[in-house]
# Entry
Amino acid sequence: MFLSKLDSINEAREKIYSHQKVMGSEVVPLKEAHKRVLAEEILSFHDSPPFDKSAMDGFAVKAENTFGASNSAPKTFKIVDMIGAGSESNKTVGENEAIIIATGAPIPDGADAVLMKEYTTTEGDEVTITSQVTPGENVSPKAEDIKKGDVVLPPNTFIRYQEMGLIASAGYGEVKVYEKPRVKLIITGNELVEPTKEDLKPAQIINSNQFTISSMIEDSGAVFSIGRARDTFEDVKIAIEEASKEYDVVMTTGGTALSKGDVVLDVVEDLGEVLLHGVSIRPGKPFGAGIVNDTMVFAFSGQPVAAMSQFDMFARKYLFEMQGRKFDFEIVERVSQLKIPSQLGRTDFIRAVSDDDTAKHVLNRGSGIIRSMVEANSYIIIDENDEGYQKDDIIDVVFFDSMTW
Amino acid sequence: MFLSKLDSINEAREKIYSHQKVMGSEVVPLKEAHKRVLAEEILSFHDSPPFDKSAMDGFAVKAENTFGASNSAPKTFKIVDMIGAGSESNKTVGENEAIIIATGAPIPDGADAVLMKEYTTTEGDEVTITSQVTPGENVSPKAEDIKKGDVVLPPNTFIRYQEMGLIASAGYGEVKVYEKPRVKLIITGNELVEPTKEDLKPAQIINSNQFTISSMIEDSGAVFSIGRARDTFEDVKIAIEEASKEYDVVMTTGGTALSKGDVVLDVVEDLGEVLLHGVSIRPGKPFGAGIVNDTMVFAFSGQPVAAMSQFDMFARKYLFEMQGRKFDFEIVERVSQLKIPSQLGRTDFIRAVSDDDTAKHVLNRGSGIIRSMVEANSYIIIDENDEGYQKDDIIDVVFFDSMTW
# Structure
């Protein structure tokens, strides 16, 4: 598994996504369904609104009785009833009659419009109006939003706040959604220590990948648990074997060098099947993936930026689609503000600062430079068939925000 | 408070944001800081990397000793030591000597480059190389990412996954962040019932606002608790008074009609101060805001779409900035696919489907039509000084995704 055998990014993706798994479903209270993915069709049990509904506080009238009313030609109606929200009237509105009505209340029989309270003056059981209304004015007609029996949302819809309202209106107090994948993140690297303000001992490095990759797992709708393994075949083997049995996905950082004897992929080969090791990408060439106990194992680099980029290139889509949510890079075109060299045969994901028109790559971009990811809001993607771009060329950009759950 | 006294959207915003409150701070473990906002400066306690670090598995050498090495002219080095990750060597690399080194380990004295394992063959204590390296090759220099003592993040930075890694590398295992605002959402409306698949009784309507607005509160980084109040002055008064003492923000839905005697704003006036009632916007004219017990009260319409739009126009920014996070609409320009009429003096937030080039408003857009929000991914904003647009005009668009936490 070396240079001549590197997969292209698309080959690597195909190998991974041909093993795409999809989670089962669970029923949750609607209150907990925000940002989950529907695992059922939402069919409305109701018309919404369920009746012709007043959209204003005012007077329910026959619109034609108001025609011609104005400040100089007021008209007077007899008030025959009053309907609060949540109530109804058993009276019928006759000629030149009015029923006081609250916003949200059902339009009474005989009426076809609501005159806003603001255009009226009331004295005893008479209301004087100085404005006219057209039939249907200030009325939300029955079923204008949803019709009983209609499919209002298909399965696999991502539930934003809007969908929460629609699902409620359709009559669902609980809803079937895809389960969240549980991901075990195993950090390898004997040199790694927890964050500390004290001086580090020689050869120690702070473990930052546990924070970045676990946050990216959250940003993909999944939940995580973090473990550590020392850099020995036995320790990594125990960690991956256990995790593969108890979790839906396993991710590792470190131990993926392309030389022989690097530990993570050797373990995967021992326990299961290596799908790929080494991809022609930058950053992130030393990436591997495999299957252990029927569970996908993503083996990320120990280099922080390489690991984040590998996650974006390969793992996000897998986690989204486990939950029934489609994921593709939303590629937009921008004008490059700088010249960008690249290498034929390699796909580059270059950290960049982009806006609605332009993109400019972050200059300092070693695969260990976390600051370069902090400065960036997007990737410039350079296809393996391109040798780079000149200033002012049109380039492909993916915003980080377009990839989040 | 009626038509002639409607505030413009900007007047309403000024009245609200001149009462902007900012939460206090709390210290949380870094693991829990993802998507929080920094309430302190992050100053690095370490160089990162803390030493010249090998970026590859291979051999630490003096680069100049490798010059000229190739497949046809291999060179041989004496292996004098071996450094695993987390270890160091007390040996110095001399002329034509090499030390075996793991990714992440410190470069030993005397060496200035790492030759990748892949370009070598080892026999006993000798390694034969067939490739040359330049000084610094495969070495991540000390402090290339972060320099000890540098401010790496200013206060009020939103903590994405990238920032998580940078904060860890700076040495912080816990971090000071703004507290999350606790919002009490009070639903008024006697007609409202919980979602049910059973037939509704006459005049009943399903309470969908509790789901949409609470989800929008979550999407603004805050936490919520939902309460109900009947449409009477006394009930609403008790609810708002209690909430104003116990929560950081109060929000209500319903009872905001601009006619006299609508209950929510009357209660706010009774308990505290009404800042505004009625804004020249569409949808959402019947919006109010006030201060009770030094707590901001947002009084949203009972109409689902009006309430969501009012939240976007007024409450999001307030909740973001309570947490020290700046919020402004990210307005982008798009080509209108349809003619859009509007009215001078009124600001319209029109639900639309937009992409990277165009915007097209959703046609069915009554303020009760939740489906119109479900179909949309953006607002077209029409300023109060514009009378609308023709097809192919350039218009202002805000994507929903650009407003989320």
Notes: Chain B touches chain A through 105 residues (CB under 8 Å). Chain B has four domains: 3-24+180-322, 25-45+149-178, 53-140, 332-403.
